[in-house]
Amino acid sequence: MASHISDEQAQLFLQAALECSVYLAPTEPGLTYEEIYRAGAWVGLHLGEIGHALPGATNQPVRNQRLMPHSNAAKAWSLYHLHEKPDYRNFEAIDLVISELRARVAHETDSNAAAKRSVLVELALVRQISEIDIEAAITILIMSGQIIENGNSLHLVPGAENRPLPGETHARAVLANQAQPKHNEMRMLAYPIVKQVLRERASRAAAADPLDAFTDEITKLGFGPLRMWWKQAVAELRHCDAQLSPVAAAVLAAALVEGALIICVRHARALKLGTMAALPAESELSRWSIGDLVAGAATGNEAAILDSALRYSVETLMMSRQRIHPGWILSEFPDNLPHKFATDRADPKAIAGLVVARVIAWLQEYPPEPPALREWSDDAGADGDFAVTNWQAGPLLAHSKQRN
Fold first, then answer.
1. CA quadruple 339, 345, 348, 352: dihedral positive or negative?
2. How far apart are the first and last CA of the chain?
3. Cis bond leading into 86, ω under 30°?
4. Which tens digit of pLDDT belongs to each residue from 21-35?
5. Which residues, listed in sequence order, are joined to residue 116 by a DSSP beta bridge?
6. Distance, CA of 94 to CA of 166 (rounded, Å)
7. Residue-wise over 66-82: b if at least 16 C-beta within 10 A, else e?
8. Model pTM score
9. Which one of 117, 128, 339, 381 is most buried, counting C-beta atoms within 10 A?
10. Are strands 147-150 and 115-116 parallel, antiparallel or unpaired?
11. Dist. CA 24–CA 82, nearest whole Å
């Protein structure tokens, strides 16, 4: 091992990194080998050192090619009487999950005393709890054995109905130990590093599957209620066979294109880029047709969302969609309906993916609110959004060791 990093420190750091993956990527917890090596490199750990420390950092089976947090971390999540800093759990979110499941036990039969994960997420958003916090709360409760997941349904474990809410227990612990909280240095160190590593994962995922990645853009632009509609439409498009049902696929793909463009209008106008400028006022958005949106997205010169080639592809998709209108068919083909339409050669799924990928790239070029990075300090907020790109890797664990 390098002289400034002990075996114990390396193991504790890797444990903390895997734990932090639950707070930062709760629907895909854990880190791949590549990601754990990347995180270790930030603190000056070499490949062999990481491999040597890993057996003590996790004792759980690999899941979806990701190393999972140690069972000790899962057990610690249920010890609400402990007061540590930093603590990245949202106790309002945890209490919401427990309270909702308790309410179902009290008012429904045993067979129905469950809640769907998606329902709890939407309920949390209504209460101004972020999606990542509620998802993390659910994953923490599952991994620590406090609730049971059966498919997409969540149940309380037997006997949990009468226990104090976790937030209440933790609040008493904070009051009792306010002057002397336990400082978890490795968790503080690992959080911003893992956040950076997972940003890179998200970038790769966006490139691989823009339809899934676009859900986050919907939230960033203030159209949160549209998220569930988007996820449902994406799921339906994926299950639709474009060869067997070309019109159905075209309708769903066009709806996604329309949705992706419509949420960009307000932002494009606010930036005064010339893009989407010709559309009617937003109060009349029910009058916006997909044709209007596509035309608007192709304006703005260098700031245009769609180039001419992509616009042509979308217009081909729009022609395919028109086949749901018998009046249009009779108008276009008054004498003889063709057995196969020329637009059948277009791939609706591919066109939707290309448009959404382009919209994501445009939003990265013209972001709604550029993120402000803060320097690392003891007073940093709970989100741990530190400027990791400017760190010197080697001294980080040494800094932690001096503080211990």
1. negative
2. 19
3. yes
4. 999 999 999 999 999
5. 153
6. 7
7. bbbbbeebbeebeebee
8. 0.60
9. 117
10. unpaired
11. 22
